[in-house]
Prior knowledge:
- With 238 residues, this protein is of the alpha/beta class.
- The chain has one domain: Rossmann fold (3-Layer(aba) Sandwich).
- It is built from 12 helices and 5 strands.
- Strand 4 (181-186), helix 10 and strand 5 form a beta-alpha-beta unit.
- It is globular.
Amino acid sequence: MLLHGFPLSSAMWLAQREGLSGDHQVITPDLRGFGGSRLGDDEPSIDAMADDVAELLDTLSLDKAVVGGLSMGGYVTMALARRHPSRLSGVILADTKASPDTPEAAANREAVARRVLDGGDLLDSVPNLLGATSLERRGMVVGRVRGLVGAAPAQASAWAQRAMAARPDSFDTLRALSVPALVIVGDEDKVTPVADAEAMAKALPDGRLVVIGRAGHLSAIETPETFNRTVSAFLKEL
Length: 238
Ligand code: MLT
């Protein structure tokens, strides 16, 4: 089960669905409000998204799954580990971090939430999401990510910004994790840099860290072959 980042949708996992579904059941839900999922009327919280994932596992009659998330999807994965640990048989944390927002970061998220509710878009975040290599190549990846970001609904974007601002520190959750975990990070990730990944890997009782070269914050989109190979090797190990 792969959980997408902000402000994207399950469509970000196209290469993973193509590359991994020969050997595995690959489930890529739209987190609430994004893609084809309803936002609902709960207060903004990453925990609500994690409860949605547990409910989806119930609906699919799956006791357990290897759950992975990229960035915001990683925050949801850590909330799932905190709230529904028995549903996990392994964890993948890609381009994400266990630390909470600083007060400055939380204030910035509130400003972004207000801006999108006022009709603004999030396209100015694209250069930050991509690594220098993807930006220099100016290839299809940039256009694809702009398309995904441009499709993000305003209400969901504001809701998710507020949910992320309220998320707690997850280092204790990682320390208590009883299943194997894979941490992945692009070496050009500017949003959640390598140091954040190293800190998570260090906290995990059974963690391994893979740094992918020439990838930014969206490693699964920017370097799909390496990302898929890394995930495949981990799943084989499990
Ligand atoms: C994401 O890619 O999900 C976001 O950049 C996460 C964040 O804003 O912390």
